[in-house]
Design goal:
The chain is 27% helix and 18% strand. The chain has 5 helices and 8 strands; from the N terminus they run βαββαββαβαββα. Strands 1, 2, 5, 6, 7 and 8 form a 6-stranded parallel β-sheet that branches. It has a two-stranded antiparallel sheet with strand order 3-4. Helix 4 links the parallel strand 6 and strand 7. The longest helix has 13 residues.
Length: 168
């Protein structure tokens, strides 16, 4: 069930904590900043951590990554997720590039069925907010609940965000 455009927050009035074995934190990180945020989320939630990697390394990162985003490409990716169906809550993390998520995130979202799952986006960025990158979740995961995302500029923001979402 998708939320309507006027309601951007997920139902956070949970009475039971999430089951750690049903929480997945999947992320793409180029410099390690997003990876650090993902590791902190995993430590706080007890969830399973999984990295997204581009199957073919970039030759010219800046030119190729920007072209992928601008042209809506979905490059081949590698992940070590064995059974996505087993997870109810999926955090998806990425750096912001050209005000968007890297193309590998679109590949991950397009290649999996998120019907009935809760997706919680988070990003890292020195200058841009998560807002402009969120459209891919609505477009590629129409049957999922998309929770409020977070731009992680400070690691101390993560725990209060998880508390606001009703996860901790």
């Amino acid at each position: 069930m998708n939320q309507n455009e006027n309601d951007t927050s997920a139902d956070t009035d949970t009475t039971e904590p999430l089951e750690a074995d049903k929480v997945l934190i999947v992320y793409y990180s180029n410099t390690g900043t997003t990876e650090s945020a993902a590791e902190q989320i995993a430590a706080l939630t007890g969830g399973t951590l999984s990295k997204i990697e581009r199957a073919e390394e970039y030759g010219d990162l800046e030119a190729e990554a920007e072209a992928e985003i601008q042209e809506g490409e979905q490059p081949e990716i590698i992940t070590d997720i064995e059974n996505l169906e087993a997870y109810d809550t999926i955090f998806v993390g990425y750096p912001i590039w050209w005000d968007e998520a890297p193309a590998m995130i679109s590949t991950f979202l397009a290649n999996n069925d998120f019907a009935g799952k809760t997706i919680i986006p988070f990003c890292t960025s020195a200058s841009d907010d998560i807002g402009n990158s969120l459209h891919i979740f609505e477009e590629l995961c129409p049957d999922a609940v998309i929770a409020d995302g977070l731009t992680v500029n400070d690691a101390t923001d993560i725990e209060p965000w998880l508390q606001d979402l009703g996860i901790l």
